[in-house]
Structure formats: C-alpha cells, structure tokens
Write a structure and sequence with these properties.
The structure is a single chain. About 5% of the residues lie in helices and about 55% in strands. The strands form seven sheets. The protein has a four-stranded antiparallel beta sheet. Strands 4-5-6-7 form a four-stranded antiparallel beta sheet. Strands 8-9-10-11 form a four-stranded antiparallel beta sheet, with no helix packed on it.
Length: about 350
C-alpha cells in the first residue's frame, strides 16, 4: 500500500513538471516552378498579371500569382521580364514600376518607381551593380543598381521613343521608334556602357524600329510601319555601325525572337521564320490554321521550351479579351492550350 502511494506521488510530480515550449513550425511555403506568362492587360486599367502553370500537376494554374503571393496588383501594362538565376525583374510600363522578385517563392524583395513622365519598356543588365531601363515617352535611359534597387543620378538622353536594347561587348544598341501619330522615328542609338556616353545614331530604312537581337556577330532590328503595312529586318554591323542589308517583309510585325539559331517573327501571316544561315524568309512557318487561330486574332508572342522541345505561342485574340497560349511539339502538333490573361506577351520558365 505504501509502495503504491509513493508511485502515485511520483506520477503526480512528473505530471506537474512543465514541458518546454515547443516552437510551432511554419507551414511550408509554395514553390512556384514551371511555366509563367506575363499578361500586359488593357492600357490604363491596372490589369497586368502573371499566370502560373504547374507542369508537374496537370498544368494547374494560378491566374495572378503576383497578387496571390504579395497581396497587391502588378500594375498597368507589364511589358518585360528579365530572368537572372533565382531573381526576376518585371518592368511595368504605365505604372512606371520595376519589381524584383525572389524565386521560387515569388515574393517581392524590392522595387523602384521611376519619375513622373517616364514609361519603362525593358531592362538590360550591364554588370552585377548596374542595369539600364529604357523609357519610351521621355527618351531617357535610366540607370539603376539591381542589387539595392536604387535609381542612380546619372542617366542617358537619347532620341524618342526608345523601345528595345541589346548589348554587344561594351556597347548597347537602342531602337528609337514611334509612339503615337504624328510621333515618328527610325533610328538606332549606340551607347558606351562603360562610361554611359551616347556614341551616335544611324537611320533605318523604315520607321518604328522595335525588337532587336544580336546573333552571328550582327545586330538584327525589326522595323514595322503599321500605317503603310510594311515591315523589315535590318542587319547591322556593330563594328562599323552601318547597315549590311535589309530584308523586307509583307504586312505588320509585332515581335521577333531568336530561337534555335533562327529568327521568328510574329506578323500578319502568323509566324514567319528568317533563316540566319541564308536569310531566306519562310512565311507561315506557323499558320493560323495550325494554331487554330481566327483571321483577326493577334499572335502576340512566341517562346521555345528547349527542355521539352515545345513551342509556346501566345494568341491575344481580337480586342481586350483573355487570350490563350498554344503549345506545339516539334512536329507542330498542338499538345495543349493554356488560358491566359489579357494580351499575353512574354513566356518564361523557372524549374
């Protein structure tokens, strides 16, 4: 009886000893890996989004992953994405914002709001601590520190309206195009990226130069005169800063990308290939019929997934409506379609 009583006392004392506080473990954070599409949205409506598709789970989607993660809208007219390892930079034109996002959490880790009157179009990294942001309306190349996300005091003044940039060694080539009638320009500027000095301009055969690609030791510039319904690709020798040749294309031109050592151009004939080995033009490399696109649909962007050997082609439809991304295999067969936001522009992958 005495022994049982002692056991009861020991049990009581042990039960009264307070256990150390256990630190609750945070819930695992989502890791956003897969396919992403930047949707411009309609100008002035603050409707830019980034669509996310989980390719490991049946391409389940998040229509606006930036808003879901960060609790705020991306802004008005998302124009450009720069991927730098595990960091994304997003340029939002009409909101005058540049965002810095950490992957794979998609959390916002920095941002810059450019001055009133600016309209950033794209970002070009010059060094770990230096990047150019070209601004359409004020004709300024702003300089930022992408590490600290601080705007530098120095800036480069170029002719209006700077659309796109490409770097060749220590020089940057900048297309200066049109904006709204009667505003016109047909020049490409050259800047020394070491001292940020403007080196000069050359004139291009037709107005409104836009997309620019450096490959095969040449700078390729796409010009598009939508009013005259003509377009061209001018091939520039970067050393002599002169035009080697110009290839004219029928109809309007919207985008140009370097894929598998050839240029692919979204235009009125859907998608045209410019073979860089012989500069042969192949219209309807992808036809509207192959994409299931209607006559008036706007084919707005193109990308290639080298991991899966698949084409991603953005169809913005007609008018300010939600679009689609059509994915085709190497045999040009449609393998899936993804619903997007309004004016789907850039496709990018993070795995």
């Amino acid at each position: 009886m005495k022994f049982s009583f002692l056991l009861l006392i020991v049990w009581f004392l042990v039960g009264c000893v307070k256990k150390p506080n256990e630190t609750p473990q945070p819930a695992p954070q989502p890791a956003y890996k897969g396919v992403f599409i930047l949707n411009e949205g309609q100008w002035g409506l603050n409707g830019s989004t980034i669509s996310y598709y989980d390719e490991n789970n049946g391409y389940q989607s998040v229509a606006d992953v930036f808003s879901v993660v960060n609790g705020a809208k991306l802004g008005d007219t998302g124009n450009f994405i720069l991927q730098d390892a595990d960091t994304l930079y997003v340029v939002v034109n009409n909101s005058r914002m540049i965002y810095k996002i950490q992957m794979p959490s998609f959390k916002l880790i920095g941002k810059i709001n450019l001055p009133d009157g600016s309209s950033p179009r794209m970002m070009l990294k010059i060094s770990p601590n230096k990047a150019y942001i070209n601004s359409l309306l004020d004709g300024i190349i702003y300089i930022i520190n992408p590490v600290t996300m601080q705007l530098e005091a120095n800036k480069i003044i170029v002719e209006k309206y700077p659309e796109a940039m490409v770097r060749v060694d220590n020089e940057v080539f900048i297309t200066c195009g049109n904006y709204a009638p009667p505003a016109k320009n047909n020049k490409v500027a050259k800047v020394n990226s070491l001292n940020d000095n403007l080196l000069g301009y050359i004139e291009l055969p037709i107005g409104n130069p836009g997309p620019i690609v450096f490959t095969n030791n040449k700078v390729h510039i796409a010009c598009r005169d939508h009013n005259k319904h003509i377009s061209c690709v001018s091939v520039i020798n970067p050393s002599s800063f002169s035009i080697d040749t110009t290839l004219y294309l029928a109809g309007s031109l919207y985008d140009m990308k370097l894929i598998n050592n050839n240029l692919y151009i979204t235009n009125d004939s859907c998608i045209t290939q410019l073979n860089l080995s012989n500069y042969k033009i192949i219209y309807n490399y992808f036809s509207r019929t192959e994409l299931g696109a209607k006559t008036n649909d706007l084919i707005y962007g193109i990308a290639f997934d080298s991991l899966k050997n698949e084409w991603y082609i953005n169809n913005a439809g007609y008018g300010a409506i939600n679009g689609k991304c059509i994915i085709l295999n190497a045999q040009k067969q449609i393998v899936r379609q993804l619903n997007t936001g309004v004016f789907p522009k850039e496709v990018f992958f993070y795995r």
